[in-house]
Amino acid sequence: MSPRRPLVLLDLDGTLTDSAPGILGSIRDTYAQLGIPVPAEDVLRGFVGPPLHENLLGHGVPADRLDEAVAAYRRSYATGMFDNAVYPGIPAALADLRDAGARLIVATSKPEPFAVRICAHLDLTRRVDAIAGASMDGRRGSKAQVVARALAMAGLDAHGPRIMVGDREHDVHGAREHGIATIGAGWGYAAPGELAAAGAFAVADHPGDLARTALAALDHRG
């Protein structure tokens, strides 16, 4: 039997890509379409990363209008998703991880069809082994559920050394439900101290530090 490859699960928004412009533009459009006041800018920043429905319900959208809000957001985001860019240094970090033998799977709270299109548009698809995301019907929406899908995609490699890379506390918590430690992406959208408070194993300050930090964590936990 061939040895299991180290597994690295990768968040998308705020970890691989700077997606805030497209996401926040679509959020503003959503509130405008619903006739609900748009949250303050510092609140809007918190929409990048966590599951959409949680943020909408927590910031002025009534439960009986949630489906309407999600539909409005997806209409806007169908074009807004491309207002997005790969962080400098990420392609090299992914190449270094692959050269070290790691299997790379994107694990994002974004709906999987959107994630697939974004990765293709930004030339990330060929740099990873698979893309796992939330389901369009909401049945798979939490980070823990997305991580479970990524682990299913990994097959036997899911039972070897593994690590999550993400920029928000929900990445840390979702991975922990599966016994997986998280490397914080310090260049992303977390508030100061958020990742450490959530219990991240370590925080990489820059994409250039990612491969070294992740491989050290895999060796430590191997």
From TrEMBL:
Keyword set, alphabetical order: Hydrolase
GO cellular component: cytosol
Single annotated GO MF: protein tyrosine kinase activity
Alphabetized InterPro entries for the sequence: HAD-like_hydrolase_sf, HAD-like_sf, HAD_2, HAD_sf, PGP-like_dom2
One Pfam family per UniProt: HAD_2
Name this protein carries in UniProt: HAD hydrolase-like protein
Organism: Cellulomonas denverensis
